[in-house]
Amino acid sequence: xxxxxxxxxxxxxxxxxxxxxxxxxxxxxxxxxxxxxxxxxxxxxxxxxxxxxxxxxxxxxxxxxxxxxxxxxxxxxxxxxxxxxxxxxxxxxxxxxxxxxxxxxxxxxxxxxxxxxxxxxxxxxxxxxxxxxxxxxxxxxxxxxxxxxxxxxxxxxxxxxxxxxxxxxxxxxxxxxxxxxxxxxxxxxxxxxxxxxxxxxxxxxxxxxxxxxxxxxxxxxxxxxxxxxxxxxxxxxxxxxxxxxxxxxxxxxxxxxxxxxxxxxxxxxxxxxxxxxxxxxxxxxxxxxxxxxxxxxxxxxxxxxxxxxxxxxxxxxxxxxxxxxxxxxxxxxxxxxxxxxxxxxxxxxxxxxxxxxx
Length: 358
Hints:
By secondary structure, this protein is α/β, with parallel strands linked by helices. The protein has helices spanning 18-30, 41-50, 64-67, 85-93, 106-120, 138-149, 179-182, 191-197, 219-231, 250-258, 270-281, 303-310, 322-329, 341-353, and strands spanning 12-14, 36-37, 54-57, 75-80, 98-102, 126-131, 154-157, 200-201, 204-207, 236-239, 261-267, 291-295, 314-318. The protein folds into two domains: 12-120, Response regulator (Rossmann fold), CATH 3.40.50.2300; 126-353, P-loop containing nucleotide triphosphate hydrolases (Rossmann fold), CATH 3.40.50. It contains 14 helices and 13 strands. The strands form two sheets. It has an eight-stranded mixed beta sheet, sandwiched between helices. Strands 2-1-3-4-5 form a five-stranded parallel beta sheet, sandwiched between helices.
């Protein structure tokens, strides 16, 4: 899934108030975009039609050309201080979704601009992978999915006790930041800057856990990393922890709420299928819509038996891969050729997701 440069969307700003323009341009620069400015004529009509967001200065509300424009979503009126009653009526007439009073509403406006810009770009898909039991092979499958998705993919290790996904890629000695350095991230993060700072192997950028007993990774940091990668157009694969004694953690809820596809890896054993059933059937479980990947074991259950026991469909069956353990111990990435068991399953999953393969 190669990444292509996307044109930067440009919000439209309409105002002749120089002080207000200075405030708005400062905020847009903080949001990482350069707007289009228009006061009338064809530029105003074209920008009003095509821009992801239109910011109308309160001073522009009385202009004849502005009042003649057709209604459209994504129009925000911006003013300094409170808006007088006549201008409120004009804002309603042009179909404004909100009147923003600066500086009090700066945070809202920044968030609204970010949402508008995200909506115009192709967002990356998010795959969440978890195991029904210890040793199910979820981490190995997550790694194989990231490798198969192609250059630019981001593999996120959300399992504090997993030992570090960089080990599965043979990247434990590769330079780059890991969760101990990223745990303080909050809010909006630049996806290209994030990827540039991460360890990279075979085109996969990995956010790995620490092999020291560090603090848990904050849910807000995981949210920020996943959002930054997908907003940059990257496919994101998240390896989630198994439920603990205190149930399903907040990070798992947060990731699965954003995931385009959730995969639960279930070894073909009765206890594993029973554990998966508990995970998907729990009240308000985020795994309720998960698809199953059945890992075959000698003498184990059949796919229809596991699907019946868990109450969810089996999307793919992972055949035994005799080379997987040896490759992992040598620090070699999983084999993902079309004939390799992990490669075959990864292609089935990505085809279901609609991402294909690079």
